[in-house]
Amino acid sequence: MEKVRFEEIVPTLKSLSIAFQKRSDSFLYGAHRGKKKGYDDEFTELREYAAGDDLRYLDWKVWAKTEKLTIRHGFQQARFSVLILLDLSASTNVYPEKKDTMRLAALGLSWLFFHASDKVNFVYSNGEDVKDFSLKKKHEFFLLDSELTQTRFPKTKKTGCADIFTQYIEQNQRKTDVIFWFTDLYEPTNHFKKLVSTCREKNIFLSVIHATAGEEWKLPPLRFLSRATDSETENWFSAEMLPDYKTVWEEAVSARAKIVTSYGFRFIKFFTTDGPFRFLHQLTYLR
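The chain above was modelled as a monomer; its predicted structure follows.
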């Protein structure tokens, strides 16, 4: 895939909004109408003052015109705390389009949350080091994009970042509502399960976004659910890993459904060959 800079896709993102956040009565409420009472131009309740009412909600504009004490309750805009995790370990560099599409998709989703007035923290790892960014201004997205395109892969050929991200989440003191983890899922089983368990313990909603490129669609939908053991992870691209393709595929599909149900997280799969635009469009219209 031809290398595209993030600033080139920004005009496309302007037509999108994070529609699935509008479920204001459920867990994902974002910077949209929440249940909490606040003071705003739009209001849920307007009535005369009664003894015991909170004086902070007196509408002084009404009092100035009518000399009547009036209570006004409006919609409070609640900010959403989002953590974007981007896996840039050695396996993401096997197919040229994978790393670049994951980069653009992760930055694009961060941009949408940023424009919804949410708190966005972006963390990426090459399998050895981890770096985090608090995205508060537009130009910081372009600086981050430049850094991501220059990421160098370690000599160890280590695949996966789940163990590194788990440690980051455990040590992170910031409040986090939801995590979007962009990964190709070449992860040892115990590393993946540890990350999911950590999110559950911290009451963080996790969305695993599985990026698939090239011929990888022929592999099981989740790498960690194949019959390869953790010690075989370094040979993740060898044909010996799939002695019985059909059996492994069926086992992986069944195990995926079981683990997703028992561990409780959202699983989203997208093909990087489709590009970041189609993925982001589909994601933003999830209900």
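The chain has a mean pLDDT of 71.
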